[in-house]
Specification:
With 142 residues, the protein is mostly helical. The longest helix is centred in the last third of the chain and has 21 residues. Helix 1 crosses helix 7. It has a two-stranded antiparallel ribbon with strand order 1-2. It is 66% helix and 4% strand.
Length: 142
């Protein structure tokens, strides 16, 4: 992963809560407008509405699909690590505190870890997020 790719992932991670909220409101607006129904012909000449299993997947094309995929990358990465300490450290660093050096020390003190561990856990998280981003076609191997 290149430095620029890491910064891109960090940007989407840092802005994830706001992006997710915005995306959910767009999805609700699109669902209320009736775009979630997908009609298909059963072969009998009558159209029927197929069940909507995952509305977000169905609306990926109508709402900004790239935003949806980046939210999915972050969510999948958090799901991959579950309730591990890596997730707790990343959430503390990127959602509760800022990026400056004083915030880094605050996170280290709050989580009872050293600065090296903080950066190692962040890099582990970024590596997995990079794998998901490549899977969804948002990044390439460089």
């Amino acid at each position: 992963m290149t430095h620029q790719q890491k910064r891109t992932i960090e940007y989407y991670l840092r802005t994830y809560p706001k992006r997710k909220e915005l995306l959910e409101s767009r999805l609700m607006q699109a669902a209320e407008a009736g775009v979630c129904a997908r009609y298909e012909n059963d072969g009998g000449g009558v159209s029927s509405v197929r069940s909507v299993i995952d509305i977000a997947d169905k609306l990926c094309d109508t709402v900004d699909g790239r935003e949806y995929l980046w939210c999915k990358v972050i969510e999948d990465t958090f799901n991959y690590y579950g309730q591990s300490y890596i997730c707790k450290v990343v959430r503390c660093r990127f959602f509760e505190h800022g990026r400056g050096i004083t915030e880094v020390y605050k996170v280290c003190e709050e989580m009872s870890i050293c600065k090296a561990t903080l950066y190692n856990y962040s890099n582990i998280f970024f590596d997995q997020a990079h794998k998901y981003a490549m899977r969804y076609g948002l990044m390439e191997i460089e």
